Amino acid sequence: MPDVTRHHRYVKVTKSSSRTLWRHHIKCKAHLRTEAEKKALTEKHRAHKCVYKDALADCQDLVMQEAIKLHEQFPHRTQKSQKATRWNTFLRSEVKVMNSVRAPDEPRVKATQVGRDITEKWNAMSQQEKIDATEGLMEDLEDHCNNKALASHNVPINAFHDICATLDSVTQTLATLSARTGCHTALITVRGNLDHYNHPYVYLSDDRVSDFFQLALKETPSNFATCLEGYCTSGVTGVVSNYKQSFLQLKSNMSALILQKLCEAAQVPISRMYYVNFDANITAQHGVVLDNWPLKKFANPGDIGSMVEVKIVYNAFRTGMTKFHSITPWSRGSDDDANEDRNALADESRINANIDLSLLSISQPADTELWSILTTEDSAPIQRKQGREQVESGVISGITGMGGNEVSVTKKQRKTHSDKGKKQGPKQRANRSTEAAASS
Fold first, then answer.
1. Between residues 248 and 393, which one has the greater pLDDT?
2. Which DSSP symbol is given to 401?
3. 85: CB partners within 8 A, 6+ apart
4. Are the beta carbons of 98 and 109 closer than 8 angstroms?
5. In 3D, which of 178, 167, 169, 170 has the Cα closest to residue 200?
6. What is each CA distance from 359 to 47, 364, 434, in whole angstroms?
């Protein structure tokens, strides 16, 4: 296994850094060739490539045979990752000094060309001289190696060639691993930037892995890789798990926004928004009306079953197309009406409390005028003024639709009295008034 722990510090520091140049390039003069020259050169390259591959295969066979002999002779030897040493640092520094005195159009010296001379110089130095010569250069060499291994490419074509070469090597390694151990492998690689050239790459060790994609995901591996590439290149930082969760979240945001707009229009804190009997609970109490409701029916966001309709209402409130506004004179009148109603109820309670209950058991009243006073309709609570009467009767609605269109508002009907339509005499009225006073 390669030693990646020595790269951790560099990964944290240069996660977004770019690669630095370490080669010296000399501009070459362009030589235009004819079609015949190009064809001859292509044939020459193809023949040279075939000869080179054959020679390389023979060398690899020889190296493998020698490696087998070494393994049999030294079975417990393991290869470890090589770290930067003082010799590597000294070699690099000497090569840089040699190249610094060369002209820009002159080829640069490589370490393999002057390695023998530098080795003799290194061996002639004492231990303290070696330490002094490489002092402060070890970290620079380590950063240089990490930059070559981990820094991102500056040119897309370089990234393309790096990806192709690396995936080819990794695929061969996984194939031999699967042959040796029988393990199953799935490798999917996609680009993370639209500027890159590589297409989605899929490697499956056998057909069983492909069948699993069909059974579990209902997708072929290639289609899955295409979808993965679309997500990775879209720039989305987060994704909602499913449609239902996003729908519920949008409804919650819409309810909070409506309540916030309502409190801003009423200029007082309101604990909740009433969608049923909006006229009586919001318009009559706080003097607030709603303009340009975008839907045909005024309903709670939780009762709206379409994502499109919820988005329409949410955007209408967010942009200010649909809004609440306060009717200030009516609002103050509503407060006065409420105070008068409370005073009327208190007066009625005091009158009923002073009645002698023994008089109610008499079949005929002793004083007709007294009973007429007790049973008169003027002793009932004072009725609301014109504004609230119109709201309760439905003459005035606190909600208007887009362009003045009608909006269906849900209203909860009051419970019908059990004695509705029955003729009542003075005795029944007095009994009901007494029971109401006793219960209060």
1. 248
2. E
3. none
4. yes
5. 167
6. 130, 9, 11
**Of residues 259, 270, 272, 286, the one with CA closest to residue 398:** 286
Site of tokens 């070494």: 70
pLDDT digit string, tens, across residues 49-72: 999 999 999 999 999 999 888 888
Q: Which amino acid is at 378?
A: D
Task: For the chain, give the longest Cα–Cα distance.
Answer: 140
* In the block, residue with structure tokens 């409701």: 293
pTM of the model: 0.39
Reference 254, options 316, 202, 201, 204; nearest CA is 316
Q: CA dist 293 to 32, 195, 312, Å?
A: 73, 46, 10
Structure confidence at residue 101 as a pLDDT band (50, 70, 90): confident
Q: Which two tokens stand for residue 63?
A: 């190296």
DSSP string, 114-138: HHHHHHHHHHTS-HHHHHHHTTTTH
Task: List the Cα angle 32/38/44 in 5-degree steps.
Answer: 130
Q: How do residues 132-155 score in pLDDT, each as one tens digit?
A: 888 888 888 888 888 888 888 888
User: Are 409 and 282 contacting, i.e. CB atoms less than 8 angstroms apart?
Assistant: no
Segment (H or E) for 24: none
User: What gap in Å lies between CA 282 and CA 262, rounded to an integer?
Assistant: 9
Q: Which residues of 300-327 are buried (b: 16+ CB within 10 A; e: fewer)?
A: ebeebeeeebbeebbebbeeeebbbeeb
Q: Cα(404)–Cα(227) distance, rounded to whole angstroms?
A: 47
Q: What is the DSSP annotation of 149-183?
A: HHSBPSSHHHHHHHHHHHHHHHHHHHHHHHHHH--
Distances (CA, A) of 197 to 18, 161, 163, 203: 19, 10, 10, 18
Inter-residue contact 253 to 231 (CB < 8 Å): no
